[in-house]
Amino acid sequence: MTSTSTPAVFAEPVRRVPGRWIAAFAVAWLGVWMAQLAPIQKLLPDQVQAELHTTYWVDNVIAFGVISGISGVCAIVAYPLTGALSDRTTSRFGRRRPWIAAGTVVFAVSLVLLGLQTSVVGMGVFWSLALTGFCILTAALTATISDQVPVDQRGYVSGWISAPQAIGIILGVALVTYVFVGALLGYTAIAVLLVVLVLPFLFLPDAVLPRELRERMTWRGVVEGLWISPRRHPDFGWTLLSRVLVNFGNAFGTSLLLYFLEFGLRDPNADDDLLILILVYMVFVILASLVLGRLSDRLGRRKAFVFASSAVQGVAALLLAFVPQLSVAVVAAALLGLGYGCFLSVDQALATQVLPDPENRGKDLGIMNIALAVPQAVAPLFGAMIVAALGGFAGLFVLSALFAFAGALAVARVKAVR
User: Fold this and answer.
1) Could you tell me which of 74, 147, 182, 212 has the fewest CB atoms within 10 Å of its CB?
2) Is the pLDDT of residue 175 over 80?
3) Does pLDDT of 376 surpass 90?
C-alpha cells in the first residue's frame, strides 16, 4: 500500500501490469534493438569498410571501434542526464512518455542521416547522435519498470527487454541483408520500424508529476548526482560493478565472432555459420530471459540467478578460448545465450530493487544503463587491439571469461536482495 507520507508518483507500485502493457513494452524494445543492433552488426561495419578500402580486418574493426567508442562517451552523458530530466518532467503526458517520444525521433532521424554519410567523420557524428537518441529513449523506457511494475513481476517483465534483443539481432540483420539492401535503404527501413513499434507504448498511461513535487535541478546537482557513494549505497555499487564486468565479458565474447570464424577458424562459410550461431544464441536468450526471469519472481530470489548466469558465460568463453572448433562454438553460443538471457532479465529486476532514491529512479537507472551501453560500444576496439597484440583470439576469450567470473563475484556481495 502507498504510505500517506509518500506521494503516489514515487511509491512502489503494487498493481500488476496487464498483458497489453507487457506486449506494448516488448514491441517497443523490439524496435529499439533492431535499430541499434542492425547498424552495429551489419550496416555500420559495411559503411566503414567501403570507405577505408582495406582488406586487413583489424584496420576495419579499429575504425569501427573508434566510432563506437566515441558514441559510448555520449551514452555516459545522455543516460543519467536525460534520466534526471525525466524524473523532473511535469508534462500532462507524464514523466517518461515525452522522453520516449523525443528519443525515438532523435534516434530515427539520425539513422536516416547516417545512411547518407560517405566519410568516417560523418559516420561518427551521426552514429553518436543516433546512440544519444537510443539513450534518451531507453533511459525513460527502463524507468517505467520501477514506476509501474511491482517487484514480484519485474523479473518476467524485464525478460521482455532481453527476449526482443535476441529477436532484434537476427531480424534486423536479416532485413538489411536480404530485403532493404544498401546503407540508405537499410537505415531508413529500421528507422521507420523503430517509430512504428515504439508508438503503441506512447498510448499507455504514465503518472503525472505535480509541479509542487518537482525537485529543483541545477547543473551542479546533476554532476553531483552522477556519483552514488558505494559506501552509503553498497548494494547499488556492487550491482553496478557486476553489470559493467559481465557486459564487458559478453561483449568481448560476441562482438568479434564473425572475425573469429573467418580468421580464427578459417571457416569458408563464415557468414552462414555466423547466422547459425546467432540463431542458437537467440533461442537460448529468449528461453532463459522469460522462463528464468519468471522463476526468479516466484522464488523471490535474484542474486543466485545473476551469479549463475555470469558464471555460465565465463564457461562459454573458456570453451571458445581452448577448444576453437565450430561445433564447440555452437555449444558456446547456447551457453552464452542461456547465461546472458538470464542475466539481462534478472539483473534488470535486481537493479530496480537497489535504487537509492524513488524520486530519482530515471537518473539512477540511467547510470545503471551506462554499464550496458558503454561495454558494447568500446568492446570491438579493445577486442581488436587485444587480438592484434596477442596474435590470436584465445586471449580475448580468456579475458571475456575473467570479466564474467568477476561479475559473478561482485553480485554475490549484494546484501539487501536475496
Assistant:
1) 212
2) yes
3) no
Q: Quick check: 23 pLDDT over 60?
A: yes
pLDDT, tens digit, 9 for 90 and up, residues 228-238: 778 888 898 89
Q: What stretches of 88-153 show up as alpha helix (H) in DSSP? A: 97-114, 120-148
Which spans in 213-256 are helix H? 219-225, 234-254
What CA–CA distance (Å, rounded) separates 169 from 341? 13
350: cell is: 535486481
> Nearest-CA neighbor of 328 among 389, 376, 397?
397
Residue range 191-207: average pLDDT? 95
Question: Is the distance from CB of 347 to CB of 242 less than 8 angstroms?
Answer: yes
Cα(first)–Cα(last) distance of the chain, in Å?
A: 22
Rg (CA), the chain: 20
Question: From CA 43, how far away is CA 130, in angstroms rounded?
Answer: 13
Provide the sign of the torsion angle of the four alpha carbons 79, 248, 44, 285, taken in this order: negative
